[in-house]
Amino acid sequence: MSLDNTVLITFFFLINFLVITFIDKLIQFFNIYDSPDTLRKFHKKKTSLIGGSIILFNLSIFYILNLYLNFQLINNINFNQLMIGVVLFYFLGLIDDKIDLNANLKFIFELLILFLVISFDKNILIERLFFSSLNIDIFLGNYSFLFTTICFIIFLNALNMFDGMDGQVGFYSLIIFLTLIFFSKENVLFLTIISISLIIFLYFNLKSKIFLGDNGTNLLGFLISYLIIVSAKKSNYLLLSADQIFMLMILPGLELIRLFVTRLFKRKHPFSGDRNHIHHILLNNYSEVKSLMIILSLILTSVFFLFFFNKFLNWIIILYTFFYLFIIKIHDK
Fold first, then answer.
1. 22: which of 126, 168, 211, 250 lies 20 to 30 Å off by Cα?
2. Given CA atoms 237, 240, 244, 245 in this order, what sign does their dihedral have?
3. Per-residue model confidence as pLDDT tens digits over 79-108
4. Burial call 256-295: b when 16+ CB within 10 Å, e when fewer
5. CA–CA gap between residue 147 and residue 142 (Å, rounded)
C-alpha cells in the first residue's frame, strides 16, 4: 500500500472518530427511529435508523476528494453515476423509513431509479453470463438492459429482506467488500473506505444503538450490485463468473425465493412482512448471539466455497441450497 493510501485511510479513521464522538447529535438530527411492536420487531427500545447515513457520509467525503482534489482514487467506475444511484436509493429508503411507503409504489420508484442509472451508465450492463463451473457462455444481446435491471431489483429486495438482526447485513456486506478487494485490486482504497464505514456502523449496531434502516439496505444493495458487475466485467467475467457471483449472493437470494414462495402459497403479498425470515426462525430457538453466529457461518461457508471449490460450484450451489433448507426445516417449529 502506498504512502498516499495510508494517509487517506488514516484520514478516514479520524473522520469516523468524529462520527463516533457526535453520534448522539446525528441521531437527534435525523430523528428517524424504528419502534418495537408485538408482531415483527422485538427490540427493547426505539432505535435510530441512520446506518445508511454513516456509509453515505464516507462515500461523499471520498467522492469530494476524488472530484475536487484530482486524486484519481478510483478506476474503471463511473463515479458520478455510482453516486447518483447511491444517493437516490438512500433517499428512497429514508423516505420509506419515515413514512412506510406502499410496497408497490416503492417497487416502481426502484425501477425508475435503475432505468435512469443504467441508461446513462452502460458500464454496468450485464452483456453475457459465463458459468465457469459448467464452461457455458450465454450472450444476452438485446435482453442485456432488462436482465441487468432484474438482477439489481432482485438483490436490492433480497438484502432488504435479509436485514432484521443486529450485525446480520452489516457483517454480510463487510464480507462482500473484503472479498471484492481480492477481485478488484485497482480499487482497494475505495473498497477499504467502504469497509471502514461498515466497521463503524457495526460498532454501534452491535450495541443496538443504530439500525441500517431501509436507507442503509437500499444503499448497500445498489452499491454491492454495482461493484460486483464492474468487477466481473473488468476481467471479461473470467475471474468473477456468474456462478461465483451467485455464490456470493446465495444466502439473501435463497431467503428471497423462499419467502416469496411461502407468502404466495399463503395468498399474501410477496413484499408483506412476517416472522418467517431465517433470523426469526433461529431466534425462536437460540440467543441473538448464537443466531448471528449460525448466519455468519452460512455466509463464510459460501465465500469459502467460492475461493476453494470454484470448479464445482454447480454442485456446491445445489448442496448449499439443500443445507439451507435443512437448517430452516429443523428449526421452524
1. 168
2. negative
3. 889 999 999 999 999 999 888 888 889 999
4. bebbeeebeeeeeeebebeebbbbbbbbeeeebeebbebb
5. 9
